[in-house]
Amino acid sequence: MNFLGKNHIGYQASAFGNHVFFGIDPRNNQPFETPFRQASPEEVDSALTKSQEAFETYRLIPIEKRVQFLKAVSEKLKANKEILIHWFCAESGLPKDRAEVEFARSCFQFEFYAKAVETGYALEIKLDPADPDRKPNPKPSLTKLNIPVGPVVVFGASNFPFAYSTLGGDVASALAAGCSVIVKAHAMHPHTSSISAHFILETAKEQDMPDGILCHLLAEDFTVGQQLVQDPRVKAVGFTGSIAGGMALQKLISERKEPISLYAEMGSSNPVTVTKNALEKRASEIGKQISASVLLNAGQFCTSPGLLFAEESANLNTFKEELIQAFLQSELQCMLHPGISKRYFERIEEHAALVDVIYAGKREGNFIQPTLAETTAANFLANPHIQEEIFGSYLTIVKCSDEVELSMCLQLLEGQLTNSLYAEADEINRFLPVLTAKSGRIIYNGVPTGVEVSFAQQHGGPFPSSLNSYFTSVGWDAIKRFQRPVTFQNFPQEFISKKVELNENVHFLHFLNGKYE
Ligand code: NAP
Q: Is 9 within a domain?
């Protein structure tokens, strides 16, 4: 592991920067041994050059080789699972069962996105044949398909050391799109990220992929990320993180001469609405589901539920009591990093000035129990920023006097990744219009945690949960973020007719990418 502590400028390990930082074990706040050297501005520049050169080669490589490479990455990861899981747990404090789930998801994503390309789905080929006899003017033949945009920068998130980091969906979908990728590793899990990059690069070498198809840059401060997004060689950015981080990057990007897309998946409070009828019939069952979701991995999910709207009733009181008991009896869980727990405690303090805390979770170092707060709808309506995300296990119940007040609260919500609705079937229509307007995904009688990687998934909601709600960061459509459509008009029929089967398709694409064989 002599690459540990160094940047990966393509296949080259590099460590010329002056700034050094260490990974931290959040269970005891002790730094790990290896010093990690932040990429210098010159190293960032070299990575950009290599990435651009690699893109020019990678985009011309036959599709089946790209597919084979993505599948091989998954196999390589599976063969090296142990060390990856070890560092995932050591650097994040997350339990092994969670690491296993995230690992399986990450391997699956590489295979799944390979399939999206292999089946032709991601290319979205549309054929409109010519009609030379059309009157009054002949119709040209048109073929439309997606091509890769160019080098992509990916920012990893602290809370998914695999699935939204170097092994994550943004990297897998950008590579599937045919783009080279520069990862700005998250400073909170440098071992996990560096080892992940090493295995992707090892596979790339074995598969004869161009040097620079992946670069992996270490950084503890924001300068590396800022240099990357402002560089004209970068053609798209994938970001998963806080609203503040996403907005800061957007500001920098807007100063570029050439505008590019920043696909920022940011925070969300994932409100849960529980109707009076649902509470009357299933208070206990709903209470168990909600408390388990709030508790999951100390609430460090973009889909963790942070707000709950319900009408006041005796059943709501019983429901609250159930939540308090579940939180009280829960084991303390480690947060990802001292920086994350510090921010969590600060946010709770700020929030306490606006709401009533009815169960204050215990704390020991970075270990926490959930906190439960409540407030009235009137207070929520007067202080809408109560809805802002608190990252970590924290739930605020908003008590509404009736359904009219509840609807007013929902109208006031900002855009969310998800909204959940616990209701009887004949009540759905009363809530659906407002929930649809506010969310990327709506869950009926269920909790928001758990994002299925599926071709039908939408992970990305209206602002501020995402910067661009037209796109998703999970599922086959994630690839579209890193492609752009091109129409080819009046190309000779022999190229068009070769498109019926995939292998023939590949020849066609070769031609369209400027290299006819
Ligand atoms: P973060 O602090 O915003 O960091 C994300 C990345 O952005 C890091 O690489 C960070 O660099 C970089 N960054 C942040 N601010 C920057 C700036 N001003 N300039 C340049 N780079 C900047 O977020 P996090 O703590 O990793 O993740 C927690 C947040 O992510 C939560 O709000 C959670 O809800 C959200 N999240 C959203 C999704 C989703 O799919 N929507 C998924 C997971 C998490 P450093 O490493 O140098 O700090």
A: no
* Ligand 1 probe mutation, 240, 247, 387, most atoms within 8 A of CB: 240
Residues 238 and 276 occupy one common structural domain: no
Query: By C-alpha distance, which of 413, 361, 366 is closest to 387?
Result: 413
Residue 508 lies in a domain: no
Q: 125: left (phi > 0), else alpha (psi -120 to 50), else beta?
A: beta
Same domain, 417 and 286: yes
Out of 105, 106, 159, give the residue to mutate to test ligand 1, the one with the largest number of ligand atoms within 8 Å of its CB.
159
Q: How far apart are CA 108 and CA 459, in angstroms?
A: 17
- Are 189 and 280 in the same domain? no
| Residue located via tokens 């401060």 | 221
Residues 296 and 433 in one domain: yes
DSSP annotation of 40: P
Q: Judge residue 202's burial from the number of C-beta atoms within 10 Å of its C-beta, 0-12 exposed, 13-18 middle, 19 or more buried.
A: middle
Cα torsion for 203, 207, 208, 211, to the nearest 10°? -30
pLDDT tens-place values along the chain, 517 residues long:
899 999 999 999 999 999 999 999 999 999 999 999 999 999 999 999 999 999 999 998 888 899 999 999 999 999 999 999 999 999 999 999 999 999 999 999 999 999 999 888 898 887 788 899 999 999 998 888 899 999 999 999 999 999 999 999 999 999 999 999 999 999 999 999 999 999 999 999 999 999 999 999 999 999 999 999 999 999 999 999 999 999 999 999 999 999 999 999 999 999 999 999 999 999 999 999 999 999 999 999 999 999 999 999 999 999 999 999 999 999 999 999 999 999 999 999 999 999 999 999 999 999 999 999 999 999 999 999 999 999 999 999 999 999 999 999 999 999 999 999 999 999 999 999 999 999 999 999 999 999 999 999 999 999 999 999 999 999 999 999 999 998 889 887 666 544 433 344 444 444 444 343 3
DSSP letter (8 states) at residue 24: E
Residue 242: domain span? 30-266+469-482
Q: Based on the fold, state whether residues 253 and 354 are members of the same structural domain.
A: no
Active-site residue among 265, 311, 322, 389? Answer: 265
Please tell me the residue having the least CA distance from ligand 1 atom 35. 241
